[in-house]
User: Fold these one by one.
Assistant:
Number 1:
Amino acid sequence: MIKAKKSLGQNFLKDKNILKKIANLSNIEDKVVLEIGPGTGNLTSYILNKKPKKVFVIEKDNEFATNLKNKFQDKLIIINEDVLKVDETIISKDKVTVFGNLPYNISTEILSKWIINLKDFFWFECLILMFQKEVADRIIAEFNTKKYGRLSIICNWRLNIKKICDIKPNAFSPKPKVDSSLLTFYPKKKFIKIKDPKNLETITRIFFNQRRKMLKKPFNQLFNGDHRVLKKLKIDTALRPQNLNLETYYRLACEYEKLRS
Ligand code: SAM
């Protein structure tokens, strides 16, 4: 009997229809796949049934890593590490399709790391990821809404994001206390070039530090009150951070880079 470790966000997906649906979301036949947190290998089995070329898995839990080795033998390449410490860009020369019923306590950290570390190329073909619903709602939130913020701005910069479905706690064992949502992320062909994505992190952090306050103070902090930027981007500093659309934040990041270069 496996005892789930709360500290590693272990809630295992057991609903066969949902597992099948996830594995069917992308054609992975003869493709390279990376699964984050395979746990007991529930989703892994469905992935392997689709005849991928290679499957890498990253699992932090030593016990699971050993069990996966025994269960799947040489069908898997097991990386027994913390996903936050792995350089996923060098795992494979082929672009990978990433699956993950992510540990919810670090799901935003994983996704932000992947986006902020993106170079000129994409190391993945697509991401098929499960999040806590509340987090997924923030990822896909539109501007002028309460849930819109740093996560929406950073995630939508280079990715087209789609919600596939919501999933109730009884699809998992042990049951989580919250609903979950499944999202897909595909690389955008066109996006606003920001030289160092960490600048997007910086400006969104400063703008959303006080999300109910007017834009004036964070703007002055970042741009020394430079009115040319306001004029160019048609920004009214009496608005709140949630009232600026995605494009304005990406263009602000570019202006911030110009100012510092
Ligand atoms: N994929 C399995 C499923 O759907 O049944 C398990 C998903 S469970 C929500 C999250 C998995 O991620 C667990 O197996 C856990 O051990 C693993 N995990 C947690 N933190 C991790 C980390 N930092 N790096 C790699 N794996 C991690």
Number 2:
Amino acid sequence: MAGSTWGTIFRIMTWGESHGKGVGVTIDGCPAGLPLCEEDIQRYLDRRKPGQSRYTTARQESDQVEILSGVFEGKTTGTPIAMMVRNTDQRSKDYSAIQDIYRPGHADYGFDQKYGFRDYRGGGRSSARETTARVAAGAVACKLLETYGVAVTAYTVSIGPVSVSRERFDLAERDNNRLNMPDAQAAQEAAAYLEELMAEQDSAGGVVECRVQGLPAGIGEPVFDKLDACLAKAVMSIGAVKGFEIGDGFAAARSRGSENNDAFYTDGDGTVKKRTNHAGGILGGISDGSEIVLRAAFKPTPSIARTQQTVNRNGENVEIAIHGRHDPVVVPRAVVVVEAMTALTVLDLFLTAKNARV
Ligand code: EPS
């Protein structure tokens, strides 16, 4: 299956299926000398792992990472860094009953049409479990970005109809609630909303926002590899993402030029600043030195227990009710996945930009 690599200089290849032996990633292009240990990766994986609350899948995986290569005496060696996480709590029998049925909202039908058969156990490679490998690679990218003074931070901004209030916004609150919302009141309201949906055997979607701080101006290539174009591809490659915005995004379409332009100014200290950031930190596909702001819209989890109409492999109309362990909402666990894909993309273009001038 092609399409499992990302990046040009800092390049990753992910592998593994939800019900196979494990999932993993190889990073090629990480510079030598970066201090790195399994705990650096584990901190990120723990934010994504399943079984964390009643609002996530009940599958119990510790998602313990093993670094197999590329690190010696606590530092990267410049050779490929291979990392793996073993699967331990597969329950493939949950999928036997639906192996010949196309789950609405899932990749099943497309995979069958493309390959003629599929690994139906847990959705194989189309499972959200695939994102484990992205997060492991993203943790390394974040550590390397830190050495350049760049920080990537994501959080949940909405679940269903409940949005965080910009007045109550408190990033420290993000890690105090299971929905990863930087607003305690919104988290409570969203939890109540999820309880209602769960009682109705239904699921919710939501929006993750991500900010990149400390990125200098000049990152991103002018035509096809624009910073925003690459971020869009990276973030939209995360399963369940259906929408993507930079800065004001779709709202900019309703704005006027006089409102949407961010005025430049200088304090006379030699740096160029902007009074506003409607552009989300990117102009002409190149970072402008202000904060990068992006948002990803996630659809509601397609695996729901209530009865749905569908079709089987024999082309017959059938009914399906999906049981087993599923997230009533994927958004809280996806926060760190958005961080990972953003970090991998920004880092790769940051390293590319180093060769822009003699
Ligand atoms: C998923 C379905 C469930 C989730 C899984 C994502 O798989 P299973 O039926 O095997 O428990 O648990 O999430 C993870 C295992 C994970 O690590 O994210 C799906 O359909 O995407």
Number 3:
Amino acid sequence: MPTERTLAIVKPDAVRARHAGHIIQRIEEAGFQIRAMRLVHLTKREAEGFYAVHRERPFFASLTSFMSSGPAIVLGLEAPDAIRKWRTLMGATDPAKADPGSIRKEFGTSIENNATHGSDGADTAAFELGYFFPGIQFAR
Ligand code: GDP
């Protein structure tokens, strides 16, 4: 399995609820290497830029308000098959439908306040890592 990088976000709901430590522990226990990490409080405009692909969706205004509602933690994760592996560990978008043991099942409280984000493909991962870590040399 080739080594990949993906972008993870501990979203504002989970940081506010002080679940960030637990979630990062789950990331490490699953075998990811943390290659980059920042605490960010997005402006509404930055959240809109990050989620630009969703701008036509009915929940875009609500989602970008939520994502700019408080600090979030953005991480560059590395592992074999990292993109799929992180999405599996997160679980389904709607915590009510997420598998038992998944992070969204444990920490998410609604389809919007679902605790974490993960890139959904190689192109998305490249865009999203560049959005938060422009030009950085990832730690080794
Ligand atoms: P993801 O890839 O699993 O994060 O899901 P999507 O790319 O479809 O949606 C992006 C984010 O928008 C999700 O993680 C949720 O925070 C939010 N979201 C998705 N669907 C809905 C919805 O139907 N209503 C609301 N309010 N938010 C949603």
